[in-house]
Structure formats: C-alpha cells, structure tokens
Design a protein that fits this description.
Largest sheet: 6 strands, mixed
Shape: elongated
Radius of gyration: 19 Å
Distance between the termini: 37 Å
C-alpha cells in the first residue's frame, strides 16, 4: 500500500480510537457466536510513530512556516505534516533497531489463543497479509484488528489494539479496545533509555505490550463467552 494511504489509514484509526473510546466495547454473546461457522481474522496495515524529537519539530516548522496566514487550513496542514514526519521517524527506528511488527505479533499470537477459545461449531481462519483494497471476505464472519503504535518521550511505548468481530450482515458480535502505555506500568519511558544499547529496552517494551494486549483480549473474550455459557473446545 502506498505511504499516503497508510498514513491516511493510521490517522483514521487514531481518530476512531479517540472518538469512540472504551464505551464502544461489546461483549460476545453465545447465540451470536453460534451463528458464524467460519471467521476470517485480518489486520489493517500499521507502523511505528515517534513523538517528541527535535527532528519532528524542525520538520513541521519547515512544512508549516510562520508566515502561513490562512487559519482554516493551518491546523490540518500542521497536523498532517506532523503525523507524516512521526511516521517517517517510526519507519527509521523500526529499521534501525529491527523492532518487531507489533500488529503482526498481536495478530499471530491472538489467533493461536482465540482458536481454542471458540465454540466447537466455529473456526477461525488466519489471513497472514495486512488487509488492503484487494481483500475480499469469503467467510460468514470477520474479525478485524486495528492497531496504533507510538514511541513518545516521557510516556514510552503507547499502543492501542481494537478488534471487531462481525457476522455476514455486518452485525457486531464482539468489540474490544486495549490500551498500553509504558509509564502507566512504571516501565521505561525515556526516549534516550529506550533507544540505548541498540534499542534493547524498546524491544522489551514491544514484547511486553504484545503479551499484555493478547492476554487482555483473550481474557475479555473468555469472560464474556463464559458468562453466556459457551462451551470451548
């Protein structure tokens, strides 16, 4: 997918996360799960973003100069430029430190865990590639995952993962959003410390965020499923 489309998708996902919040969560219901026999599990493309570096600040200043005098367009141009540069820096640190793909890791691990949590009448099918314009659903159910990943000085690693399961009529069967923030877990939040020693601490944060995210999503699915008396395999 072209960088412009990826950036637009990232911005859209972030907007959805901020607007809907946790109130949009929906527990799974026994009778709804029984209505879908096959569920394709896909993820949307995602990448790292970096907040709080001098490079970004200077870049945005150059993209939106002080003589920009048309206020209605100034804010959109500023934010678009900033997000673009944050995404560019994210690509650089991911390549430089060989960071794992957060979305891909959560996708794979969650698939393995959820596959044994579904009722015996349902089957989860793994779609390995990120979803793009060529994707066509061939099953009656769909489980889609959006992610947002950011490294911010003073906050550390910040991630959001939202999963939504729908049936053949696009009715929402299950929806859950999981947030992770290094500083909330009293873990490394300094940009310089995260990047030291070849990004060792940052890699540890990504692995930790993946584990917590998957565990929280599985727990949420099992709790709501068990409340409805669904028998797992």
């Amino acid at each position: 997918m072209a960088r412009g489309k990826l950036l637009a998708l990232s911005l859209l996902c972030l907007t959805i996360f901020l607007v809907h919040g946790c109130a949009s969560n929906k527990p799974v219901v026994k009778k709804d799960l029984a209505s879908v026999k096959e569920i394709t599990f896909v993820r949307y493309p995602s990448g790292y973003m970096v907040e709080g570096t001098g490079k970004t600040v200077k870049g945005v200043a150059a993209a939106v100069p002080s003589w920009y005098i048309f206020p209605p367009l100034a804010a959109p141009v500023y934010h678009h430029s900033k997000r673009r540069m944050m995404s560019d820096e994210g690509d650089e640190i991911q390549a430089k430190y060989s960071l794992p793909d957060f979305a891909e890791r959560v996708h794979k691990d969650l698939f393995e865990r959820l596959s044994v949590c579904l009722p015996s009448s349902s089957k989860l099918i793994y779609e390995g590639k990120p979803r793009d314009d060529t994707f066509r659903k061939t099953t009656d159910g769909l489980l889609a995952m959006d992610t947002f990943v950011e490294v911010a000085d003073g906050y550390g690693l910040r991630t959001v993962a939202t999963v939504k399961m729908t049936d053949s009529m696009n009715n929402v069967l299950w929806k859950r959003k999981i947030w992770y923030n290094s500083v909330d877990h009293n873990r490394t939040s300094s940009m310089s410390l995260l990047m030291a020693d070849g990004g060792k601490k940052l890699k540890e944060e990504v692995e930790y965020a993946v584990q917590l995210t998957v565990a929280d999503l599985v727990d949420d699915f099992n709790q709501s499923k068990n409340n409805q008396g669904v028998e797992g395999r």
